[in-house]
Amino acid sequence: MFKKLAVAGGLSVFLASGFALMPAQADLDFRGTISGEPLDFTGEEESPQFKEFKNTGINPYNGNQEALNKGYVIFATACSGCHGHLAEGKLGPALSDDYWTYPTNLEDKGLFETIYGGAAGQMGPQQGLLEPDEILHVMSWVRALQTEPEKAKKAVDTFEHRNG
Ligand code: HEC
Questions:
Q1: Cα of 61 to ligand 1 centre, how many Å?
Q2: What are the residue boundaries of the Cytochrome c domain, all occurrences included (predicted)?
């Protein structure tokens, strides 16, 4: 009787600790694009979508028109001054063509690392300026420029319509 309880107790402790550890173990290793230093998310507001992204490296907002619309609002305030109104390039490079200075940006994980942690010169880290969830939104718009240009354009049209 006692023995059985102890076994059951041990098993539940084992399961509980296993589950508690799972998310931490599954998180990918995020590092600055240039520095190679681990990115530190301490103190960040972590949306369920960001938590998912940390595990999968795939932006859950990709292709979601609502998210793209919000992403473009963020782009227009935080990025367009340097990257141009339609990400055609200005002080910073174009994000609308298929050339990447850092080929890691072809993948969502790499794109997040560049935006959150910054790159060279004027491309400062957006850590502390944008929430991780906002970065995922802006990424969904940037990604759509290549993969679903009609959705990216619709987000711009929605923004311009709203802002007269
Ligand atoms: C103050 C100007 C400035 C702002 C604001 C800025 N960027 Fe940049 N960005 C740059 C410059 C300059 C580079 C080139 C840096 C390099 O090559 O290392 C760059 C590079 C990048 C790259 C890498 C491009 C490649 O070819 O690999 C991405 C992605 C990017 N920016 C996205 C963004 C996003 C998204 C925002 C808004 C959240 C943003 N940037 C805000 C100036 C800026």
A1: 20
A2: 66-146
- Which residue ranges form the domains of the chain, and what is each CATH number? 2-162 (1.10.760.10)
Distances (CA, A) of 131 to 52, 65, 85, 138, 154: 15, 20, 22, 11, 24
Per-residue pLDDT tens digits of the chain, which is 164 residues long: 455 554 444 445 445 554 555 545 579 999 999 999 999 999 999 999 999 999 999 999 999 999 999 999 999 999 999 999 999 999 999 999 999 999 999 999 999 999 999 999 999 999 999 999 999 999 999 999 999 999 999 999 999 998 76
d(CA 104, CA 116): 14
Question: Does residue 102 line the site of ligand 1, with CB under 6 A?
Answer: yes
Atom in ligand 1 nearest the alpha carbon of residue 139 = 35
